[in-house]
Write a structure and sequence with these properties.
The complex is a heterodimer of chains A (about 400) and B (about 80).
Chain A: E1 4-10, H1 14-25, E2 30-33, E3 48-50, H2 51-54, E4 65-69, E5 71-75, E6 81-82, E7 90-93, H3 95-108, E8 112-114, E9 117-124, E10 130-137, E11 140-151, H4 159-162, E12 174-183, E13 191-195, E14 205-210, E15 215-223, H5 224-227, H6 232-243, E16 248-258, E17 267-268, E18 271-273, H7 289-308, H8 317-341, H9 345-357, H10 365-373, H11 380-388
Parallel strand pairs in A: 1-2, 1-11, 2-8, 5-13, 11-18
Antiparallel strand pairs in A: 3-7, 4-7, 5-6, 9-10, 10-11, 12-15, 12-16, 13-14, 14-15, 17-18
Chain B: E1 14-16, H1 26-30, E2 36-39, E3 42-45, H2 55-59, E4 65-67
Antiparallel strand pairs in B: 1-4, 2-3
The chains are: A alpha/beta (about 400), B alpha+beta (about 80).
C-alpha cells in the first residue's frame, strides 16, 4: 500500500468494486478498503438479479449462481396466487462468490484491495474537501491521501455524513429485514415468490428465492414505521414455523434496505456516494445490486475523468449522469411504492382477483399494474413517465 | 466530524445488547446524529451524540437495541473505536 492514491473507495460490495474497476480502467490509481476480513461475506441480501442487468457487468457463471429463475409468483394476503408472464430470466446469486468475482474485476484493472480496513474519518483540507481517508488497518491507524473518495459503505454509510451530506434514511423508507437460508425444504427451483399483506410483511414483502433444488433464501422486509409494533424477525419466525417447520437453517441474518429516492446530494467536497450509501436502490422492489453497480460505474468513470484532466470540479458530472440514467426512474418508482403501500389487504386481494381474469398473454407485470392503477389513479402519471421514456 | 463536542443533558437510554448484534447496520442508516459506530464485529453508541430518539430501537430487525428510561450507565457496552487507545 502506498501513502496516497487518486481514488480511495470505501467498501468492497458490488457498487464499490465497480467504482474501483472503472476508475482504474480510466487510468486512476485506486485503493479499495473493506472493513470486514472477507470481500463478499457476510451476505446481507436476497440475492436476486435480472439477466439483463447482470450482463452489463459480468458474464453469468454457474460458480456464483444458485438458481436460474424464469417466473414470479405474487401471493395476495388471502393466498390468491398470480404468476405473471415474464420475458426475461433472472438469477439468485451466491453473493459470497459473486462479490469476490466483481472485486477481482477491479483488481484486474489495477485497483489495490485491502480487507479488515475500517475507515473511521476523512482527512480534510482547509476548505473542507476530502483529501484522504483515516483508517484502522489491522489495528493500526493510518492516514491515506487521495484526490477523490468514493463512499460505498452501504446502508450503514458514514462517509457521506463526514463530507456534509445528509444520508440518514427516514424510518418510513428504511426496510428492516431478516432472512434465513433454509435447506431440506420443497421449493420450485425457477420461481421467485413474493408474499404481500399486513399479516406477513406490513409496508414491505416476504420473499422465497430458490437456491437450487431444496434450498432457498426466505426473508422479509418491513417498514421501520411498522416495526415499532413488531420486529422483522418475529414476522419471519412466524412464517417459517407455519410454512417450513423443522427446516435446516444454513444462514440467519439481519439487514436494512433504504427504499428511498436517491440522496439529494451524492457529490460533495470530493466525495462521491454509490450504492446503498447513496440510496441507489429501486424503492419499489428493494433491489440494489445492479443499480448500485450502475452508480459505481458512473462514479468510477467520472472520478477517472476528473483526475486525468486535473479538474476536480468535474466530479459534479456524476450526479447529473446518475440522475439522467436511473435517478429520475427511482423517483417514479418511489411514488409507485407510496401508492402500493397505501393499498389495504382487501385492495390487494381485489387486484389479484382481477389479474387472474386477465387472459394469460396479458398477465404481465405491466398488465397487473394497469389493474392496480384502477385502485390508485394518481399513480397513473408516474407510471406513464416510466413507460414513455 | 468525529470530534466530540457536546455534553449530554439527559442520560444515555439506548443500549445495544452485547453478543446479540448481527452488525447489519440498519440502525446506523436511520440514525440522524451519526451516533453509532459499526465495525466488523463491534458496535457502539457514541454517548455524546445520541439524543435517545429511539429510531435505532425500532429499526433493529433482531430486537438487539433496548430503551431504558432510567439510563444505561451501569450496563456493559463496547467503547467507540476512536476513543479507544
Amino acid at each position: 500500500m502506498k501513502d496516497g492514491y487518486d481514488v480511495i473507495v470505501v467498501g468492497a460490495g458490488p457498487a464499490g468494486s465497480t467504482a474501483a474497476r472503472y476508475a482504474a480502467a480510466g487510468g486512476a490509481s485506486v485503493l479499495m478498503l473493506e472493513k470486514d476480513r472477507d470481500v463478499g461475506y457476510p451476505v446481507r441480501c436476497g440475492e436476486a438479479v435480472s439477466h439483463d442487468g447482470l450482463v452489463q457487468f459480468i458474464e453469468p457463471d454457474k460458480k456464483f449462481i444458485g438458481s436460474t429463475v424464469t417466473r414470479f409468483r405474487l401471493v395476495a394476503p388471502n393466498g390468491t396466487e398470480v404468476i405473471p408472464r415474464l420475458d426475461g430470466a433472472g438469477y439468485v446469486l451466491e453473493r459470497r462468490i459473486f462479490d469476490y468475482e466483481v472485486a477481482k474485476l477491479a483488481a484486474e484493472e489495477g485497483a489495490e484491495v485491502v480487507t479488515k480496513a475500517y475507515a473511521y474519518d476523512l482527512v480534510k483540507d482547509a476548505e473542507g474537501n476530502a483529501v484522504g481517508v483515516r483508517a484502522l488497518i489491522k489495528d493500526r491507524k493510518v492516514d491515506i491521501r487521495s484526490r477523490v473518495v468514493v463512499g460505498a459503505d452501504g446502508v450503514e454509510s458514514r462517509v457521506g455524513k463526514w463530507a456534509g451530506i445528509d444520508t440518514t434514511c427516514h424510518i418510513r423508507d428504511m426496510e428492516s429485514c431478516a432472512q434465513m437460508t433454509l435447506s431440506g425444504i420443497e421449493v420450485e427451483e425457477d420461481v421467485l415468490d413474493f408474499y404481500f399483506g399486513d399479516a406477513v410483511a406490513p409496508g414491505g414483502y416476504l420473499w422465497i428465492f430458490p437456491k437450487g433444488k431444496n434450498t432457498a433464501n426466505v426473508g422479509l422486509g418491513i417498514s421501520v414505521e411498522c416495526a415499532k409494533k413488531k420486529s422483522a424477525i418475529r414476522y419471519l419466525q412466524e412464517f417459517i414455523e407455519r410454512r417450513f417447520p423443522g427446516a435446516a437453517v444454513l444462514t440467519h441474518i439481519a439487514g436494512g434496505v433504504p427504499c428511498a429516492k436517491t440522496c439529494d446530494t451524492i457529490v460533495k467536497n470530493r466525495v462521491l456516494l454509490v450504492g446503498d450509501a447513496a440510496h441507489q436502490v429501486n424503492p419499489t422492489s428493494g433491489g440494489g445490486i445492479i443499480s448500485g453497480m450502475i452508480g459505481g460505474m458512473i462514479a468510477g468513470q467520472v472520478a477517472a475523468e476528473a483526475v486525468r484532466s486535473n479538474d476536480l470540479r468535474r466530479l459534479g458530472e456524476y450526479q447529473k449522469r446518475w440522475q439522467k440514467r436511473l435517478g429520475w426512474r427511482h423517483e417514479v418508482f418511489y411514488n409507485i411504492k407510496e401508492g402500493i403501500s397505501s393499498f389495504s389487504d382487501e385492495t390487494l386481494n381485489g387486484i389479484a382477483a382481477s389479474a387472474l381474469k386477465l387472459p394469460e398473454a396479458k398477465r404481465t407485470l405491466g398488465g397487473i399494474f394497469r389493474t392496480a392503477l384502477w385502485n390508485q389513479p394518481s399513480m397513473l402519471l408516474d407510471v406513464a413517465k416510466v413507460f414513455v421514456s | 466530524m468525529n470530534e466530540v463536542t457536546t455534553e449530554r443533558k439527559t442520560p444515555l437510554m439506548i443500549h445495544i445488547v452485547p453478543g446479540k448484534c448481527d452488525f447489519c447496520g440498519c440502525c446506523v442508516g436511520v440514525c440522524p446524529e451519526d451516533a453509532i459506530e459499526l465495525m466488523e464485529s463491534k458496535i457502539s453508541i457514541i454517548d455524546e451524540r445520541c439524543t435517545n430518539c429511539r429510531k435505532c430501537v425500532w429499526a433493529c430487525p433482531w430486537e438487539v437495541i433496548e430503551f431504558h428510561r432510567e439510563g444505561v450507565a451501569d450496563l456493559p457496552r463496547d467503547i467507540p473505536m476512536y476513543l479507544n487507545t
